[in-house]
Amino acid sequence: MAYTTIDDPSAHFQTTIWTGNATDDRSITNSGNSDLQPDFVWIKSRETTNDQLLFDSTRGTGKYSRANDTDAETTNADTLQGFESDGIEIGADSRLNTNNDPVVSWQWKANGGTRTTNTESGNNPAGGYQANTTAGFSIVDYTGTGAAGTMAHGLGAVPTFMIVKNRDATTDWAVYHRYASSAGNDSYLELNTNDAVATAGTVWNDTTPTSTVFTVGSNTKTNTDGEKYIAYVFTPIQGYSRFGSYTGNANVDGPFVYTGFKPSLVIQKDTTGNNWAIFDSARDTYNGMDKRLQPSSNAAESTESPACYDFLSNGFKLRTTDGQFNKNATTHIYMAFAEHPFASSEGVPATAR
After folding, report:
1. Which residues contact 141 (CB under 8 A, 6 or more apart)?
2. Rounded Cα gap, residues 214 and 311, in angstroms
3. DSSP type of residue 1
4. 25-66 confidence digits (pLDDT tens)
5. Are 75 and 63 in contact (CB under 8 A)?
6. 42, 115, 207, 339: which could join 106 in a potential S-S bond, CB 3.0 to 4.6 Å?
7. Which helix (H) or strand (E) holds 317?
8. What is the rounded distance in angstroms from the CA atom of residue 302 to the CA atom of residue 324?
9. DSSP one-letter code for 11
10. What pTM value is reported for the model?
């Protein structure tokens, strides 16, 4: 059995859905078993072509980046207005509160906005991090130096997934995934595009993250001198999160991907092209999973036919021949978070859907 240190994943991650009503100062309360005051909030309107907005408590309320765009950071006080004790407060901005529009948010806990800071040292950037070592997640902010350097992440374990955005410039996102290529550290993906995995030694300086730091090169995506950056950094936690890959077979009896938990959220991408995809158990309450959103697009939620996944008690199963999700002999990378561990710390098993 796969035991875990996190019996209730909702204490660290939740998916929350609501219907917009166009009113200001509105509280959105999470519905998980535990209260969750989030530090990283990703919001998407499900029935419109509005952008996907990413907020965090390091930058503060109203400041966001667009997952599907290259734009620099934007500030709008009518968007996310508060990180509350069990949810968020939102304004009347149409991208997250249009009347009668269904909206989804994915929310992660870091450290309540409290940062550990460092000063610039040689080529190592100045900045800070707020880390949730229990759940393997930290938010890192830094100011670039333009030359290869390291930045502390605070996790005490080696990250396998990182998302980085230049806050000051119009540039693509940079995504590190340990299994995007054979080495991992020589490649990157872009959150805002459907491009295949690319190679550029200047992004991560061909250097694998360690349990204390990650390395950035001289690429504008990760380290332009004097420009500000935000990074979301993850390391796997048994029974709670997993960042891996699978090889497609283009068959409705597709690969089974073991995670060690019943998934709540899966974000996936074909490394040879095609858009990213997000599936979660809040929008899809039963198998098969067919409600797709795309981080690399502002497209409204689509209903895939045939359905793409089954979420199981210990992983997920591909149920489609579509090459976006199950391309034959092709590597697909994923990040996944738990609804329930396959077995709790006391040996209590997860149930099937």
Report:
1. 58, 59, 115, 127, 128, 129, 228, 229, 230, 231
2. 32
3. -
4. 999 999 999 999 999 999 999 999 999 999 999 999 999 999
5. yes
6. 42
7. strand 315-318
8. 14
9. G
10. 0.96
